[in-house]
Amino acid sequence: MAPHPNWKGYLKLSLVSCPIALYPATSAAECVSFRQINKKTGNRLKQQLVDSETGDQVDVEDKGRGYEVGKNEFIQVDDTELDALQIESTHTIEIDKFVPNAQIDRRYFDSPYYIVPTDAVGQDAFAVIREAMRGKGMVALGRVVLAKRERVIALEPYEKGLLGTTLRYPYEVRKAADYFEDVQEVKIPGEMLKLAEHILESKAADFDPSRFVDHYEVALVELLKTKQAGIQPKKTGAPVPERVINLMDALRRSIEAEQPKRPAARSTLDRRRNVPETVSESFRAF
User: Fold this and answer.
1) Where are the domains of the chain?
2) Which residue has the higher pLDDT, 153 or 29?
């Protein structure tokens, strides 16, 4: 069953519009999650709201929002006041521009959403907008209000619907120069580069997310199974990568190590794909 939509409104291209809904395209529900508990009793903990100055417990109905303008000085804003900020993108995603997909900096991508028409009458308008973009290979840019924040959203055809990806604003993306400034320019010998390229070619493959394995999740499930069975888990340390002393020698040894292992690596990965199938199924009892 599809989840409830995060947003319902209209998609608009010039004078053409249709009712749509946005559904989250990703979910973390299958991941193992923990609750906060009392280590002495094993009971679950409940969080309380406490006034930072008086120390008194605060009822949920007295919880509000405030923008800090000074030390312990806030401008109170009610939800009704925020809801009253009715800008166009609250109910309508109006397509402003179309840009080539390759021009969008990947650092700006945030959260993906599936976009579907919600009314039989608007199916034709939705299909026209979708297929026009598919034919041109362009990505539409619009704006949408989600969780009381206006976000830029990129729209592109995806199967029978649209894939919408919210984009970060420039002030949310850190400058790469601040981190790469001290990285030295290195002149790489041709032979060394060829060896590295050979290793890359030996590991070349098609993008297949079904082969992704969350090794930490698998290890976490095994830990929980072990503890539930009353067995004390063994402490194991993560392997420390060997420090490279001679880079050329390390590249040559990497090629030698990869050649005999390539067929076995694939079958091992296939076996791992089935253990476990999902976290919830393999550890449903916990």
Assistant:
1) 7-28+84-172, 187-235+247-282
2) 153
CB of 155 within 8 A of CB of 94? no
Query: What local confidence, expressed as pLDDT, does residue 111 receive?
Result: 95
Q: Find the Cα–Cα–Cα–Cα dihedral 258, 260, 262, 264, rounded to 10°.
A: -130
Q: What is the pLDDT of residues 84-124, one digit of tens each?
A: 777 777 899 999 999 998 899 999 999 999 999 998 888 99
Q: How many other C-beta atoms can be found within 10 angstroms of the C-beta atom of residue 106?
A: 5
Name the 3-class secondary structure at 73: strand
User: Is the model's pLDDT at 232 over the cut of 60?
Assistant: yes
Strands 7-13 and 16-24: antiparallel
CATH entry, 7-28+84-172, from 1.20.140.10, 2.40.290.10, 3.40.50.300, 3.40.47.10? 2.40.290.10
d(CA 222, CA 233): 9
> Mind listing the pLDDT tens digit for each residue in 124-139?
999 999 998 888 888 9
Quote the pTM value: 0.72
Distance CA 214, CA 205 (A): 19
71: exposed, middle or buried (Cβ count in 10 Å: 0-12, 13-18, 19+): exposed
Average pLDDT over residues 5-25: 92
Cα–Cα separations (whole angstroms), residue 245 to 68, 240, 249, 255: 53, 15, 8, 17
Q: What is the CA angle 40-45-48, rounded to 5?
A: 130
Burial 158-181 (b: 16+ CB within 10 A, else e): eeeebbbbbbeeeeeeeeeeeeee
Neighbours of 229 (CB within 10 A): 7
